[in-house]
Amino acid sequence: MIDDVDSAVAEIRRRSSHAPAVGVVLGSGLGAFADAIEEPVEIPYGDIPGWPVATALGHAGALVLGSLAGVPIAAMKGRAHLYEGLPAPRVVFGIRVLGRLGVDTLVLTNACGAIDTSFSPGELVAISDHLNLQGTSPLVGPNEDALGPRFPDMTNAYDPTLRADARAAAARIGLELREGVYAAWLGPAFETPAEIRMLRALGADLVGMSTVPEVLAARHMGIRCLALSCVTNMAAGILPEPLDADHVLRVGGQAAGALTDLLRELVPTLTA
Ligand code: HPA
Q1: Which whole-number Å values give the CA distances from 213 to 19, 79, 104, 250, 268, in the listed order?
Q2: Domain of 138?
Q3: Is 139 exposed, middle or buried (0-12, 13-18, 19+ CB in 10 A)?
Q4: Atom 3, ligand 1: which residue's CA is nearest?
Q5: Nearest 5°: phi and psi at 132?
Q6: If you measure from the C-alpha of residue 231 to the centroid of ligand 1, how many angstroms do you get, rounded to a whole number?
Q7: Residue 19 alpha carbon to ligand 1 centre in Å
Q8: 124: Cβ–Cβ under 8 A, 6 or more apart, which residues?
Q9: pLDDT tens digits, residue range 147-165?
Q10: How far is CA 261 from CA 3, 104, 126, in A?
Q11: Is residue 233 annotated as a catalytic residue, yes or no?
């Protein structure tokens, strides 16, 4: 596995001499941030050996290397999800490539449903912790000692300093950034209302189908993580109407402006 990761790293280095310090994962409908990257080198996932080509709606599928206010970054436009049928280690292939490229700080974005009814569609929320309810982990199997330890600590998986940086950046541009616990659901079906009641009882504020495998792989490698979630809808059963994937994408697209503004304010402050 590590040889596949390093082959991808070699191909990326052949195409660009950028040495990214910060990685950004752009979720459904949230790809607009990549347009703000200076001197971009865009590499379609299909050109990178071993990189899974994203099939999810609203995911473009390319790695963009460049910089933002002098900070070298690598942005993944589109990600793989477990619900696509990929094994968990394949889902996190790109994260491991970013880590081997030298990324030590990772900002993940996603779209989510709100379980906590004090959140509203369109709002950005920093994830403070997670519940892994996807039934698997990318770390299952023989441990790759070159990447990290067998039993990585997940106490501060969502780095408190990065969360404070994100709150400060949000305040500078007049945005409130509250925090919540994110439950990772396998999907691809949205949750039932009963499942949402269960998730609420378990302590979840938000629910989505991504991010957690990536955070597990990143923490395994010692990469600091921040995850910013865009609430696209109230979770199933909270409102009288059914959930609609097109609506989720549309709201994600509408919130992309605020998220892009926040990332542009935040990322230049993130060199560890
Ligand atoms: N559930 C799961 N994933 C999601 C949701 C949701 O309600 N909204 C956006 N992604």
Answers
A1: 24, 11, 17, 25, 26
A2: 2-269
A3: buried
A4: 208
A5: -90, 105
A6: 8
A7: 34
A8: 170, 175, 177, 228, 229, 230, 231, 255, 258, 259, 262
A9: 999 999 999 999 999 999 9
A10: 37, 22, 15
A11: yes
Active-site residue, selected from the candidate residues 16, 18, 28, 204: 28
Encoded amino acid at 146, one letter: A
Beta strand pairing status for 105-114 and 124-132?
A: unpaired
- Report d(CA 133, CA 105) in Å as an integer: 25
Residue with CA at minimum distance from ligand 1 atom 2? 208
120 as an active site residue: the answer is no
Over residues 49-107, the pLDDT tens digits come to 999 986 655 556 899 999 998 999 999 999 999 999 999 999 999 999 999 999 999 99
**Tokens of residue 259, six digits:** 């998220």
Q: CATH number of the domain at 150, please.
A: 3.40.50.1580
Does residue 182 contact residue 206 with C-beta atoms inside 8 Å? yes
Cα separations (Å) of 185 from 45, 82, 190, 221? 25, 10, 8, 23
Q: How many domains is the chain partitioned into structurally?
A: 1
Q: Which amino acid is at 83?
A: Y
Q: How confident is the model at residue 221 (pLDDT cuts 50, 70, 90)?
A: very high
- Judge whether 17 counts as a catalytic residue: no
Cβ pair 85, 91 in contact under 8 A: no
Half-sphere exposure of 236 (CA within 13 A, CB side): 18
